[in-house]
From TrEMBL:
GO terms for molecular function: antiporter activity; xenobiotic transmembrane transporter activity. This is Protein DETOXIFICATION. The keyword Endoplasmic reticulum does not apply. The chain crosses the membrane at residues 57-75, 95-115, 136-161, 173-195, 207-229, 235-260, 280-300, 320-346, 358-381, 401-421, 433-457, 463-484. Its main location: membrane. Residues 1-35 are annotated as: Disordered. Residues 11-31 have a biased composition (Polar residues). InterPro entries: MATE_euk, MATE_fam. Belongs to the multi antimicrobial extrusion (MATE) (TC 2.A.66.1) family. It is found in: Membrane. CDD domains: MATE_eukaryotic. One of its GO terms (cellular component) is membrane.
Length: 512
């Protein structure tokens, strides 16, 4: 298929013009997007000037998306981190329990529901690019129903967290305290089920700043109420986790109020629809592919925390590793912000029938994210001897953390590329393929090599982490190769077919 510089000759746009029930003019993002395609297709311009112009347009589009998205993820992560810090100042045992509960159990729910929510990102992003605005609200509601249904089995895991942690060999004292912490996070599961579809719904329309402002206001409330609950009232670990659940529900409620009141969402949110309760099985299939892809990534480092609990000195291993994982988690939020921006940019461009712009967006977002990751790694290495004191006291923990920091720096640099490539995969709808790659690289290569290095060669946590870095590197190289070889014209055709398929699912429902 040969690409034409004239967007109106493209089948995706013809489809959107024929089918669209909205007369809304394209947004500023859509305008800049078509401008980017024109610049990249203009062979009259010298190639250097063409790419300079295109880079400037793309950077403006990218930063408008990435900056608020990074802020949202950083603030939401900082709420979770502040809860661990409040717990850590109750004692080292409480810190180990909160970290095990948070990174050993809670990340299970986060990974599963965020992964399922990324199906909304593919569908909403491509529908918005094709100007099928009416479909976005139905996708949002359908996703929320599906995620709510999947939340109930997760509650069972939370309720039985203590026997599960004991079953995999965690110490009785740490497992008991961790389960208390986890029980207070049960309301948070249902907040996740509503929050992630809302977040993807807004991001696909390049509406990111309101979520950032809502999260910023909530974190202030969270810190004050956490301090009162943990220290003044003396509710301890349970109080800390209950406040975290409350804070997430504040964010969800405020975002939903914004959607139903904002003029920016008047064409994409047209009220509750009965068709959201139908076609659920098709949505479940796409959601499961998305969930498996993201869960395999999120749980990968969760395994590292769980295995560290099996070491000879589990409390020191868990404390040192938890500090590094907390820093990694915070910096990973920057990468997830770029992941979201990459997904929105690629899905919008593919939906709008702009293959050159989609390919160019992939290059720019990867370069920007990689540079930011290198800067983060340099800062962490320079401060490696003092980082641990933010979370918990003790010179032994500080020395253990400093010893692990070189591995943390390598992980941060890899995180500058790998999540962005995953975002590209979500934008294109490649979730099922990436899930297979993740199984092979992470669970067939990374974890077994890590366990051999850690236990057989007595390298401890450093050995396990080194093996897992190898798995991440392998996965990153495969995704780079696949992305480099992508036929973006074919991806545009696939997006057109996907929109038609989902429209056919919806049409018979409207006749009932």
């Amino acid at each position: 298929m040969e690409h034409s510089g004239n967007e109106h000759n493209h089948p995706t746009l013809q489809y959107s013009m024929q089918q669209s029930s909205s007369d809304t003019p394209p947004s500023a993002a859509t305008h800049h997007s078509s401008e980017l395609e024109k610049v990249l297709s203009n062979t009259d311009l010298p190639w250097l000037e063409r790419y300079k112009k295109a880079t400037w347009i793309e950077l403006k589009l990218l930063l408008r998306l990435a900056a608020p998205a990074i802020m949202v993820y950083l603030i939401n992560n900082s709420m979770s981190m502040s809860t661990r810090i409040f717990s850590g100042h109750l004692g080292n045992l409480e810190f180990a329990a909160a970290c095990l509960g948070n990174q050993g159990i809670q990340l299970f729910a986060y990974g599963l529901l965020l992964g399922m929510g990324s199906a909304v990102e593919t569908l909403c992003g491509q529908a918005y690019g094709a100007q099928r605005y009416d479909m976005l609200g139905v996708y949002l509601q359908r996703a929320t129903v599906v995620l709510m249904l999947f939340s109930f089995p997760i509650v069972v895991v939370y309720v039985f967290s203590r026997p599960l942690l004991l079953l995999i060999g965690e110490s009785k004292q740490v497992a008991t305290l961790a389960s208390v912490f986890v029980h207070g996070l049960i309301p948070q599961i249902f907040a996740y089920a509503v929050n992630f579809p809302i977040q993807k719904f807004l991001q696909s329309q390049s509406i990111v700043a309101p979520s950032a402002l809502i999260s910023l206001a909530t974190v202030g409330v969270h810190l004050v109420v956490s301090w009162i609950a943990v220290y003044r009232i003396g509710l301890g670990l349970l109080g800390a986790s209950l406040v975290l659940s409350l804070s997430w529900w504040i964010i969800v409620t405020a975002q939903f109020v914004y959607i139903i009141r904002s003029q920016k969402c008047k064409d994409t949110w047209t009220g509750f629809k009965w068709e959201a309760l139908t076609g659920l099985w098709e949505f479940v299939k796409l959601s499961i592919a998305s969930a498996v892809m993201l869960c395999l990534e999120t749980w990968y480092f969760q395994v590292l925390v769980l295995v560290a609990g099996l070491m000879e000195n589990p409390e020191l291993s868990l404390d040192a590793l938890s500090v590094c994982m907390s820093v990694n988690g915070l910096m990973f939020m920057v990468s997830i912000g770029f992941n979201a921006a990459a997904s929105v940019r690629v899905s919008n461009e593919i939906g709008a029938g702009n293959p050159k712009s989609a390919a160019f967006s992939v290059v720019i977002v990867n370069l920007v994210s990689f540079v930011v990751a290198v800067i983060e790694a340099a800062i962490i290495l320079s401060q490696r001897h003092v980082i641990s004191y933010i979370f918990t006291g003790g010179e032994r923990v500080a020395n253990a953390v400093a010893d692990l920091c070189p591995l943390l720096a390598v992980t941060l640099i890899l995180n500058g590329v790998q999540p962005v490539l995953s975002g590209v995969a979500v934008g294109c709808g490649w979730q099922a393929f990436v899930a297979y790659v993740n199984i092979g690289c992470y669970y067939v290569v990374g974890i077994p090599i890590g366990c051999v290095l850690g236990f057989k060669f007595n390298l401890g946590v450093k050995g396990i982490w080194s093996g897992m870095i190898g798995g991440t590197m392998m996965q990153t190289l495969i995704l780079l190769w696949v992305t480099f070889r992508t036929d973006w014209n074919k991806e545009v055709e696939n997006a057109t077919k996907r929109l038609k398929m989902w429209e056919e699912i919806k049409k018979p429902l409207l006749k009932n």
